[in-house]
């Protein structure tokens, strides 16, 4: 990475200029029949599947190592920070969420896996946006001596991948935060759920 | 609930009319020094703490019942669905995220708890918005025969609370989805992490 990415300027975005995001004024009727308004953001990229994105909780198995997952680190302009996340991406045209999961995992991490499970459609931040996603579980079975594969990133994509034993994930996220990186809420919740199950009396 | 809430109309929201949400055109420089643009949404309600919101993973203990958590069901206009979420809310002025956690849990569920832990600041959907939050763990210790407390909702708030044993949470979320409700991604991830820790071989 030749230099640190950074935000140079933040301006108000007129709706007429927006290419990726739409701004919605939602008129709705509440439980008492009262007319109310809500403001929300929406992605303009949603395809026929009706789902914006997928994220991938990888289960990486190796004969000699503890079961691990893969997390990625990438700079995110909206929060001006390097974020720690599950591999994830938007769903392409004519692609199912399941196909997108296997493709995105390969592109962002180099690993080719097999879809074991995909969640129903879940919503990222339903007080603020229409954004939705599905969480896939993709299994990767490595052989002894397997080499770390090459990522298949697009030009202009800078993504670091890190393999982490599942039992160390929560502590690793705490450490990334202490080092000044920012953890994605969904990844944090997954690790916190795992940690609670393993430690709660 | 006298009637089902519903979306009546969705219009484009001009930036000049937006009261709760701001739209950002972010100029940033990438790792190669190239000037690039990103579009994002931001909440206008962020206070001096720099954190928009808190969510609460409650640990409810009772001498005769399995350890449980509390989830809430509420209609969310951006996704036009009843969402299943951890209790959560925006942080008030002159309030710390920790104080907000205990207050929101009480308002939305009626339970008064003690903060056991609060996460660092994590980001809700960093490709789309600046929204951030902290996840609190709040413990509630009940005595045998304790009655279910009253919620302390604001006028116009319609929130249903449900106590769920932690070991049943994941299956319960699957069932809510099948019934046509929509699960929040963060709650799903927490339950999926717990489920993986309990079931993975």
From TrEMBL, chains A, B:
Look up the record and report any one GO term of the cellular component aspect.
Answer: nucleus
Recorded protein name is Nudix hydrolase domain-containing protein
Q: Which organism is it from?
A: Decorospora gaudefroyi
Instruction: Say which domain of life the source belongs to.
Output: Eukaryota
Q: Which InterPro entries match?
A: NUDIX_hydrolase-like_dom_sf, NUDIX_hydrolase_dom
The answer to whether UniProt assigns keyword Hydrolase to this entry is yes
> GO annotations under biological process?
nucleoside phosphate metabolic process; ribose phosphate metabolic process
**What molecular functions are annotated in GO for this chain?**
ADP-ribose diphosphatase activity
What the entry lists under PROSITE patterns is as follows:
NUDIX (PS51462)
Task: Specify the taxonomic lineage.
Answer: Eukaryota, Fungi, Dikarya, Ascomycota, Pezizomycotina
Q: Which residues form the signal peptide?
A: none
> Which SUPFAM superfamilies does the record match to this protein?
Nudix
Pfam families (alphabetical):
NUDIX
Specify the Nudix hydrolase domain's residue ranges.
51-187
Record's keyword annotation contains Oxidoreductase: no
Swiss-Prot/TrEMBL keywords = Hydrolase
């Amino acid at each position: 990475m030749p230099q640190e990415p950074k935000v140079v300027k933040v301006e108000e975005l007129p709706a007429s200029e927006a290419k990726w995001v739409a701004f919605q004024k939602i008129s709705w009727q509440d439980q008492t029949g009262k007319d109310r308004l809500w403001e929300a953001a929406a992605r303009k990229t949603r395809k026929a599947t009706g789902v914006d994105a997928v994220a991938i909780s990888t289960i990486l198995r190796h004969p000699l190592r503890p079961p691990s997952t893969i997390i990625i680190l990438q700079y995110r302009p909206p929060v001006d920070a390097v974020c720690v996340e599950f591999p994830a991406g938007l769903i392409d045209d004519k692609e199912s969420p399941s196909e997108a999961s296997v493709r995105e995992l390969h592109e962002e991490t180099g690993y080719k896996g097999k879809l074991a499970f995909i969640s129903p459609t879940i919503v990222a931040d339903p007080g603020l946006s229409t954004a939705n996603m599905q969480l896939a579980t993709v299994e990767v079975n490595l052989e002894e001596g397997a080499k770390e594969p090459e990522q298949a990133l697009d030009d202009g994509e800078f993504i670091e991948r890190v393999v982490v034993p599942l039992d160390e994930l929560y502590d690793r996220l705490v450490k990334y935060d202490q080092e000044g990186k920012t953890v994605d809420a969904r990844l944090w919740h997954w690790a916190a759920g795992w940690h609670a199950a393993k430690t709660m009396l």
